Amino acid sequence: MNNRSKTSDSNNIAGRFAPSPTGAPHFGTLLAAVASFVHARASGAVWRVRIEDLDQDRIMPGAADQMLHTLEACILHWDGPVVYQSQRNTAYEAALEDLLQRGLAFACGCSRKDLQDAKSGPEGPIYPGTCRQGLPPGRTARSYRLRVTDEDICFDDLVLGCVCQNLAHEVGDFVIRRADGYFAYQLAVVVDDAWQQITQVVRGADLLASTQRQIFLQRQLGLPTPLYLHFPLILGPDGKKLSKSEDSPPVDLRHPERLLHLALSVLGQDPPDGKAEELLAWAVENWRPSAIPAVATLPYSVLSSLT
Ligand code: GLU
After folding, report:
1. What CATH number should be reported for the domain whose range is 9-85+233-306?
2. 206 CA to centre of ligand 1 in angstroms
3. Residue 30 phi/psi, 5° resolution?
4. Of 20, 177, 235, 252, whose CB count within 10 A is highest?
5. Which of 48, 195, 207, 211 to mutate to test the pocket of ligand 1 (most atoms within 8 A of CB)?
6. pLDDT digits (tens), the chain, 307 positions
7. Which atom from ligand 1 is nearest to the alpha carbon of 210?
């Protein structure tokens, strides 16, 4: 079966794959592509690709093209044009301006050093509110932050169930435009998911703790909240997140069927053997998000077989 056969633009559901081109695609990147692709196709959604190349200091020249080449080699065909965040600044400006005008965001003059004594939360220092009521005398605007409220923000993750976070207690007012001038990932992702009419976000659990900030931003901007599915972090044999691990070599595209088979297995799907196209068709027909495991580790032998 052709893996695009379930695709339809008419039911208004859309998934996406949104890699940051900071290095050569590795197995963790491919996993996000496969999971979001199969979930989209299994639910009859279009699947879009967005290159998150906002932070020009972190991108690796050529990595975005390598990413697209990897998708093509693994016959993960996307719908519509590829969106590049580096070309979307006007939209982010407009969102920031709107939030500032409504008093929902504020200029902050604090440096990292100024916050080093702040209480620490799961995502780093919890912003102590220094510039919330206006810049203190002698301070100039460096970044812009979103004013958070003291409430539990909860969502129903398709793998993890109900996940809640109180932004005021665990994160604090968070940065939406950074001191170096780049828009923050949280703002860009929310503006773009809405603009691309994304209704399902499938990504790794390393972004789980960003989700409540994104939902809060969606609410402040009057944007819809998509469904979320976070698959487990894949740890390398050294116990580190695969993308940060020394053992996460670039994927070898000579055998896409091996990569797809492993990706689907890691996602708990028990695929048969077959060619890449057959594997994807099988995965779309038989996709079971409930089979995705909570934790996954890749042994050395498996990782070395990918290079
Ligand atoms: N660009 C992010 C990354 O590569 C993913 C963003 C997202 O899926 O929301 O880690």
Report:
1. 3.40.50.620
2. 9
3. -65, -35
4. 177
5. 207
6. 334 434 444 479 999 999 999 999 988 899 999 999 999 999 999 999 999 999 999 999 999 999 999 999 999 999 999 999 999 999 999 999 999 999 999 999 999 999 999 999 988 999 999 999 999 999 999 999 999 999 999 999 999 999 999 999 999 999 999 999 999 999 999 999 999 999 999 999 999 999 999 999 999 999 999 999 999 887 777 777 666 555 567 888 999 999 999 999 999 999 999 999 999 999 999 999 999 987 777 766 666 666 5
7. 9
> How far, in Å, is the centroid of ligand 1 from the Cα of 202?
10
**Which amino acid residue places its CA nearest to atom 7 of ligand 1?**
18
Distance from the alpha carbon of residue 20 to the mean position of ligand 1, in angstroms: 6
Cβ pair 177, 187 in contact under 8 A: yes
Give the SS3 label for residue 106.
Answer: strand
Atom of ligand 1 nearest to the CA of 19: 4
Selection from 90, 42, 67, 19 nearest residue 287 by Cα: 42
Tell the burial category of 17 from Cβ atoms under 10 Å away from its Cβ (0-12, 13-18, 19+): buried
d(CA 41, CA 202): 12
Side chain identity at residue 174, one-letter code: F
Atom of ligand 1 nearest to the CA of 203: 8
At 256, list the tokens. 């896409």
- Would you list the domain boundaries of the chain? 9-85+233-306
Q: Which residues contact 33 (CB under 8 A, 6 or more apart)?
A: 17, 19, 70, 71, 74, 76
Q: Which residues line ligand 1 (CB under 6 A)?
A: 18-20, 52, 189, 203, 207
